[in-house]
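Model the whole thing, not chain by chain.
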Amino acid sequence: MDSFFEIKNFSCGYPGKFTLKSISFKIEKGDFVGIIGPNGSGKTTLFKGISNELPAISGESKLNSNSIQKMSLKQKAQNIAIVTQHIEVGSMTVEEYILMGRIPYRKQFQFFETKRDIAIAKKYMDLTGVTPLKDKYMNALSGGEQQLAGIARALTQDPQLLLLDEPTSHLDITHQVEILNLIRRLSKELGLTVLMIIHDLNLAGEYCDSLIMMQNGGIRKKGSPTEVLNYRDIEAVYNTVVVTRTNPISNKPVVFLVSEEVIRKS
Amino acid sequence: MQKKYIKWIFFLSALVILLLISVIVSLSTGEVKISLSQLPEVFLNKNGIEYTVLSKIRIPRLLLAISVGGGLSLSGAVLQGIYRNPLVEPYTLGISGGAALGVAIAVVLGIQVMGYIILPIFGFTGAMITLLLVYFLSVKKAGLSINSMLLIGVMVSFVASSAMMFLMSIATPDNLQSIVFWVMGSLDESNMLLINIALYSSLAGLMLTYFFAQTLNALRLGEVKAKHLGINTKVSVKMLFFIASLLTGIAVSVVGVIGFVGLVIPHLMRLIIGNDYRILIGSSYIGGSIFLVLSDTIARTIISPNELPIGVITGLTGGLVFIIVLSRSKSHFKLN
């Protein structure tokens, strides 16, 4: 039996500059997987490879036993939704923006949204809590609200796989927790499979079912947060001294940074 | 949601009514005054000086104004969608200049293979080449700012107009006059074949653009995100460029360079009805038609019996709007 989402000996990138080293991993349906690693380790390149924005150099990626490379743009958009870090839309209302998620389902000359499109958009606006904002303009929203609208738009695509690129960067802890709780709920209640790039190791450890740690375009380690977030691997990958402990309530690993001054003293 | 569609229908109907009013105003004003109540009678009797004035002068002009105004305005709206920038239009991108250059080349070389048809073909080719040039200089070089892109358009315009000057200096007096005509822009064209070409191609452009309404909407999110939504951006952007060049090239080859229609009208429509291309395409077209019909009426009556080049009217209003847009706060600067 094939896994729900599988990448085998996959490589893509910018030949001559940066390419991924033959990457393989599997994700089961409903898993919430975090991708961590320093800047330039290939996280975003991997995302572009999965969404086929960058063509595969070798290997393949499969969703539900179907090759993603062989899907049409439309099929891909019906199966994989991506929320990028920055959502750059100006004068468009939140509702208009979220309804764009239905574009992959539009027929060739279909001009208006169907009742179903509107119902689905409404459902996910309610779920993400952006319904009160629906008539506001996207550029009038705060960063956290924009991310929520971005997630609602992605959900409106009814995807099998949701890709999130640093959804919590630039947000305060209230919004970080709000968004990650929401994603966790989506993966558990709707059975949505989520792959998320995240810089904050503590949030990664607290929320994700498993983690993939990348280094120099390859996978350094993958497994449960407790397996991946150990000081040896973190120090090797990030070149930074860290201390790891366990969160007394959630029993998830926590990573502490130590200042240079203190290290010298001890 | 349903409310939105009702609003659109009302808006479109209002524009159509406005167009009808401006058509009547345009038909009745001029040296020979024909009042509204006289119009049906003149059309029924089909004789007399009034009928000749209408059928030989005013109606051809009117058809040309409608098709060229609509076409240029729509071309502007499409280009703004591709570039995600409210300040691009055929004129500011140098496309009109390129089309005029193409026409000038045809005139100077004395190419008359297929009679008048050759001019629209050269105009279209000139527009297409300029558009490709600007596209490769701006879009392919990622990260180019709005200002540098407009600058490239202005430079392309300058190069095209310098080349035109060169052609004018080597042209025979007869040819020179034809070229000057294109530079100034005028709706004074009596060849019904050219007028029909302009009319049908701009209507075809309007229909073709409607097939891409959703694509243009998705492009408001940017090319990469439109692709994430399953839009084949490569093919559709090429098609949209083709449509924009067709609309501009043919308009310019028949009436010459008329600037700023593609800037003022779509901008106004965006302010009134929003940025959804499903309504923007149609309203930009009708709005452009109204604008040019009225501008032409003013141009031919304000210093009567002489005629003001229509470019003066559109340039004055358009240039002013351009300055106002540029000096407004940055939040209004984005259209996407």
